[in-house]
Amino acid sequence: MRRFGKSVPYFGSVIAIGFVGSDIKRKGLVKGVLNSGVDAIPFVGFAKNAIELATGDFFPDKRVKKEQK
């Protein structure tokens, strides 16, 4: 159990790196890379996500233009 507990922060980093592509699609290149980079840092990413639950995204999604018919 102790060994598993020590590796939990690194699992979060692996998951954040896996979502880089979807972050770039939703937020744009710079904001997507920054968002994933902060999420990949153990404990800092956890704190960022905990704050985002209450306040919203630090790096908002890019605006999507409405398609004209």
Considering the chains and any ligands shown, give keywords for the structure:
0% strand, 69 residues, mainly alpha
Précis, in short:
Helix 1 runs antiparallel to helix 3 (29-40) and helix 2 runs antiparallel to helix 3 (29-40). It contains four helices and no strands.
Structural class: mainly alpha
Point out poorly predicted stretches. none
Give the % helix. over 70%
Q: How would a textbook summarize the main sheet?
A: none
Radius of gyration: 15 Å
Per DSSP E runs of 2 or more residues, the count of β-strands stands at: 0
For the terminal residues, how far apart are their CA atoms?
Answer: 58 Å
Order of helices and strands: HHHH
Structure annotation, total helices: 4
Walk me through the topology.
Elements: H1 2-18, H2 20-27, H3 29-40, H4 44-55
Report on this structure.
With 69 residues, the protein is an all-alpha fold. The protein has one domain (2-55). Helix content is 71%, strand content 0%. It contains four helices and no strands. The chain has helices spanning 2-18, 20-27, 29-40, 44-55. The radius of gyration is 15 Å and the shape is elongated.
